[in-house]
Specification:
Layout: H1 10-17, E1 21-22, E2 27-28, E3 35-40, E4 49-56, H2 64-76, E5 83-90, H3 93-109, E6 121-126, H4 134-147, E7 151-156, H5 164-167, E8 176-178, E9 188-190, E10 192-196, E11 199-204, H6 226-235, E12 243-247, H7 254-262, E13 267-272, H8 276-291, E14 295-304, E15 306-307, E16 313-314, H9 321-329, E17 333-338, H10 341-349, H11 360-376, H12 385-395
Parallel strand pairs: 4-5, 6-12, 6-13, 7-11, 7-12, 13-14, 14-17
Antiparallel strand pairs: 1-2, 3-4, 8-9, 10-11, 15-16
Helix pairs in contact: 4-11, 6-7, 8-9
Bound molecules: adenosine-5'-diphosphate and magnesium ion.
Length: 396
């Protein structure tokens, strides 16, 4: 975040568009051939003004605004982009036939390489360094979203320092591994589940791998650490998911770049403490997301002012770092979670603070979850446009 950003290239825009998924066709708009044109700058225009033309399967498809918003958010977060104009057209009969062929081929080849449903919204919870509360934020957001009726997957990508099972009360539970015929060395894994209200959390973690702690995991040996995350992404059978939260390992490691490569549609939530030093590191994580073309949803400030019984707030770990980082990166501050013993207690007991009805942290997590659902990361809609298009193609 130092030199002024250069003018975006078509390649950059295409990279960002790979994160925009047509949930019904289950693939990104670039690979589906739905991106008809990309214009950058041009006569009389700002050099950072981008126009993207998208060909829809059905002109009036209700998914239109979802695709448009997603395109604006992702392309707009590229360095150097000053405005994004999204033009919508409709595919020709020939294009529709092609896109169906492509979608069918993909379904057959399972080329996405993951079982994460195309309708799931994926957020990697990251920060530059450990100890800022990434895992606590992940566990509490998962609980808060489940409490609102959503099915929330949690992928604990902190393979060496896993803490999600304990924080969500699933310590000691193990994923179910089922051998598969095509590759005996890599079984399918079924997450550990917990019902919360009318919703559900589904957890995959190194801590839930049979024998992993005892170092008896014959079938997982050699897949440890970096490969383990890839294994989780490729071989976990998630079933239904509205959200998938990924608890990232500390630091800007290759796991982050790997995630960007394997799951370009993932988005990122950056956690920071109010202190300047943590914020500097978080800036680096944000920088990383941009280079990998992951959209940053926003910043969550954690360990903000300690609220005493009288409602007065004491900024033990500094002040304003979350807001400063959000402003610097140009994304919203999703919320600020105060220091609250309920977070630490909940992390140990497995009953996250977010499941309480009152308390400073419970209220902060509730507000953040509401914000995610209402505006920052609304659940993906399906509109049945593909089915209608299919009918049209097949009857023509
Ligand atoms: N808002 C908070 N209030 C009080 N304690 C917190 C809060 N957030 C995190 N903690 C505690 O701080 C420690 C580190 O949090 P953790 O979520 O494990 O961080 P990270 O995953 O970033 O390493 C844990 O003991 C946790 O209980
Ligand atoms: Mg952690």
């Amino acid at each position: 975040m130092t030199a002024p950003p250069a003018v975006p290239t078509e390649e950059d825009v295409r990279g960002a568009m790979r994160g925009v998924i047509d949930p019904e066709l289950g693939d990104n708009l670039v690979d589906l051939g739905m991106v008809r044109g990309i214009e950058i700058g041009g006569p009389g225009k700002d050099p950072g003004a981008v126009t993207v033309t998208i060909a829809l399967t059905i002109a009036g498809c209700p998914l239109r605004s979802q695709l448009q918003d997603d395109t604006k958010a992702r392309v707009g977060s590229l360095p150097g982009v000053t405005s994004v104009d999204v033009q919508m057209g409709e595919m020709s009969g020939e294009e529709k036939r092609k896109v169906m062929e492509r979608a069918r081929w993909k379904a057959r080849e399972n080329a996405l390489g993951t079982d994460i449903p195309p309708t799931a919204r994926i957020a990697a919870i990251a920060s530059g360094k450990g100890g800022v509360g990434k895992s606590s934020v992940t566990a509490n957001l998962a609980a808060a979203l489940a409490r609102r009726g959503f099915t929330v997957g949690v992928l604990d990508a902190d393979v060496a320092g896993f803490s999600i099972p304990r924080m969500l009360g699933l310590r000691g539970r193990k994923v179910e591994a089922k051998a598969r015929h095509d590759d005996a060395s890599r079984p399918h894994l079924y997450p550990v589940e917990r019902q919360i209200g009318s919703g559900m959390v589904k957890v995959v973690s190194m801590g839930a791998i049979p024998g992993a702690e005892e170092d008896e995991a014959v079938m997982f040996r050699g897949l440890m650490l970096n490969r383990a995350v890839q294994h989780f992404l490729e071989d976990v059978r998630w079933g239904d998911l509205d959200y998938l939260l990924i608890d990232m390992p500390p630091g800007t490691s290759d796991v982050q770049m790997g995630l960007a490569r394997m799951l370009p549609r993932a988005e990122m939530i950056v956690v920071t403490t109010p202190a300047q030093a943590a914020q500097k590191v978080a800036t680096r994580a944000a920088d990383m997301a941009r280079r990998g073309h992951l959209r940053i949803v926003g910043v969550i400030e954690n360990m903000a002012g300690f609220v005493c019984g009288h409602g007065e707030s004491y900024p033990l770990f500094g002040e304003g770092g979350g807001g400063r980082l959000a402003k610097q990166v140009g994304v919203p501050l999703l919320g600020s979670v105060p220091l609250d013993a309920a977070v630490a207690l909940g992390g140990d007991s497995g009953e996250p603070a977010a499941l309480r009805d009152t308390g400073p942290a419970a209220e902060a997590f509730a507000a953040i979850a509401d914000k995610l659902v209402a505006e920052a990361m609304p659940p993906v809609e399906m509109a049945g446009c593909t089915a209608r298009m299919l009918e049209m193609v097949e009857n023509s």
